[in-house]
Every structure is written in C-alpha cells, then in structure tokens.
C-alpha cells in the first residue's frame, strides 16, 4: 500500500478555498493594526510585507477574472 503525501492534498484544498473577500479583510486588518500602533516596528515591516503579498494575490485573481469576462464578452459578440 502506498501512502499519499497529506501535505500535497492539503495544498490543493487550500488553493480551492482561497477567497478574495477574506484576503481583503485580512489586508484591512493589517492596515488597522499598523495605523493603530499595535505592533512593534519589526512586526510592522513583517505585516506590511504580508499585506503586499495579499495585494499581489488579489491583483492576480482580478486579472484572471477580467480575462474570463473579456472572453465571455468576445464569445457573445461572435454569436
């Protein structure tokens, strides 16, 4: 019997669960903590870097969805 690598299974499930609105809420939370002065300086930089990564993920998500919408509109125009 071959055992499956559970980490690869959890990564695929994690990818399916990604949620734009949840990422935006996380970004807003980070901004609130930074602006509220709740973090040590080192943590500010760490949280800022995390927020930038979330923004990149959101931008990529929106770019992909825009491409899908453009394709759908193009197929409607062709009919």
Write the layout of secondary structure elements.
Layout: H1 6-17, H2 20-35, H3 41-78
Helix pairs in contact: 2-3
Question: How would you characterize this protein structure?
Answer:
The protein contains three helices and no strands. With 79 residues, the chain is mainly α. Helix 2 packs antiparallel against helix 3. The longest helix has 38 residues. The chain starts with 5 loop residues before the first helix and ends with a helix.
**What is the count of helical runs?**
3
Specify the helix fraction band. Answer: over 70%
- CA radius of gyration: 19 Å
**What is the number of beta strands?**
0
Contiguous runs where pLDDT drops below 50 for at least 5 residues: 1-8
- 3D shape: rod-shaped
For the biggest sheet, the summary is:
none
Mean pLDDT across the residues is 85
Query: What structural category do the secondary elements indicate?
Result: mainly alpha
Pattern of helices and strands: HHH
As a percent range, the share of strand residues is under 5%
CA-CA gap between termini: 53 Å
Family: Belongs to the XseB family.
EC number: 3.1.11.6
Organism: Fischerella thermalis CCMEE 5318
Keywords: Cytoplasm, Exonuclease, Hydrolase, Nuclease
């Amino acid at each position: 019997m071959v055992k499956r690598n559970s980490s690869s299974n959890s990564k695929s499930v994690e990818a399916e669960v990604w949620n734009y609105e949840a990422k935006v809420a996380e970004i807003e939370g980070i901004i609130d903590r930074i602006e509220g002065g709740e973090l040590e300086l080192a943590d500010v930089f760490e949280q800022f870097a995390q927020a930038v990564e979330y923004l990149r993920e959101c931008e990529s998500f929106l770019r992909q969805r825009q491409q899908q919408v453009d394709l759908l509109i193009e197929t409607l125009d062709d009919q």
